[in-house]
Amino acid sequence: MTELPKGTDQTDVLADQRAGSGIVVLSTSMQLLHMNRQATELAKKITAVEHGGTTSVSARGILPTALTELCAEIIKALHIRTEAKDWEQFELKRVTGDPNQPILLRGFGLPDRGGIQHARLVVTMEELGRKQNLNAEHARERFQLTNREQSVVEHLAKGWTNKEIANALQITEQTVKEHIKHIMRKTNSTTRTGILVQIFNA
Fold it and tell me: For every one of its 202 residues, what pLDDT tens digit does the chain have, with 9 covering 90 and above?
């Protein structure tokens, strides 16, 4: 990968390589305030996977389960992260949809001084296209990852939790956390999403 110019954000580069971001804005009572066309298309794809390949359900405007679950997590976080600055370096993410064409959901809260009922939830939806398919071998070489760290990254890319990764690799959750810490240091990342941005860009 070519070096990026100073000041260029890795996420901007990754976003530019995608077909376009879906954007969903909701109230904390889960009222849909905005959903662009790309988000509608991606939501249909997620719903089709969740319902075993049928898209008829999504036509009725029901939000996919993965999206509503992520929103529930954002609402929980909004009770703790009540200031806008609390969200500057924080996001919730989930990889969902067809494993061959996964969709990355990134969730943010927009707190309001008027209280939780005036806060907003923002979710961006991005299809991880072929360019972003995980080239695990290349990432391992580039970031000097151990075999175990590479396995952790592959599971992170599937959106797995620390507990799920620990079970799959038959190690403790604490060991998974240590591996993630080492991977963050090697990839110069501060979040799990940051790791994926670096890995998919490798």
Answer: 444 444 445 455 444 444 568 899 999 999 999 999 989 989 988 888 887 765 444 344 578 999 999 999 999 999 999 988 888 878 888 888 877 778 889 899 999 988 899 999 999 998 875 444 566 677 888 899 999 998 898 888 877 889 999 999 999 999 999 999 999 999 988 888 788 878 776 6
Q: Residue 172 CA to chain centroid, in angstroms?
A: 23
Q: How far apart are CA 26 and CA 148, in angstroms?
A: 39
Phi, then psi, of 181 in degrees rounded to 5: -60, -45
- How close are the terminal C-alpha atoms of the chain, in Å? 6
Q: Do 147 and 110 reside in the same domain of the chain?
A: no
Identify whether residues 55 and 98 lie together within a single domain.
yes
Of 44, 12, 21, 4, nearest to 129 by C-alpha is 21
- Looking at the structure, tell me whether residues 50 and 72 fall in a common domain: yes
The verdict on residue 190 lying in a domain is yes
Q: Domain span at residue 83?
A: 12-130
- Check whether residue 29 and residue 126 sit in a common domain: yes
Residue 134: count of CB within 10 angstroms of its CB: 19
> 176: alpha, beta or left, given left = phi > 0 and alpha = psi -120 to 50?
alpha
153, amino acid identity? V
Sign of CA dihedral 33, 36, 39, 40: positive
Rounded Cα–Cα distance for residues 48 and 155 (Å): 23
